[in-house]
Amino acid sequence: MEKDLDLIKLKIEKLLKAYDSSIALNKNLESKVMSLELEKKKMQDEISLLNTSTNAIKLTTFAYTLPENERMELKKTIIEYIKEIDYCIKTLNQ
What we know:
The chain is an all-alpha fold and 94 residues long.
């Protein structure tokens, strides 16, 4: 009977050590997950910025392939759009 109790105590101690080890591992993994999520967010932001830059380069390249008169017309249209957007923002802020 005493041997059985000693065996049970030994198994309980082993189980508690495994539990503590699992808790420590879980905290470590949670920390790594948070770190990787932050890194993922930074990379997504960088990708978004690069996509925006790529689109701007494509538009610029497209604009320079147009004949001079069409380029000037496009420039005037863009300026008009910017003025309209500025007006809308100003109206919304009032």
